[in-house]
Amino acid sequence: MSIDAIISRYRTQSPTLPVPVAEEWDWQRQARCRGNDSAIFFPPNGSRGKAREELEARAKGICRQCPVRNPCRDHALASGEPYGVWGGTTAKERALWTHP
Predict the structure, then answer these.
(1) Is 86 helix (H, G, I), strand (E, B) or coil?
(2) Which of 2, 56, 60, 77 has its CA 20 to 30 A from that of 42?
(3) What is the rounded distance in angstroms from the CA atom of residue 89 to the CA atom of residue 87?
(4) What is the pLDDT of residues 44-67, one digit of tens each?
């Protein structure tokens, strides 16, 4: 299967969100992304090339210093989050990570 097909399939799957239990979401309170502009982590659909890469690099820089990077990434992988930077990973990276 081509990389484009893997990514397309990943993005079109319906996310399966975990049950909303406060204890399971408490890690978000410690996230370094809190208070930042969400556009850093969710680049506009029309962004391409260098502009998108710069936003993703900025988001990943914040994630690198985040104490809850792993739970954030694990949440995105478990729920099939098809957009944005979560736990220092892009949607494309997560799609490739979940497909052997």
Answers:
(1) strand
(2) 2
(3) 6
(4) 888 889 988 999 999 999 999 999
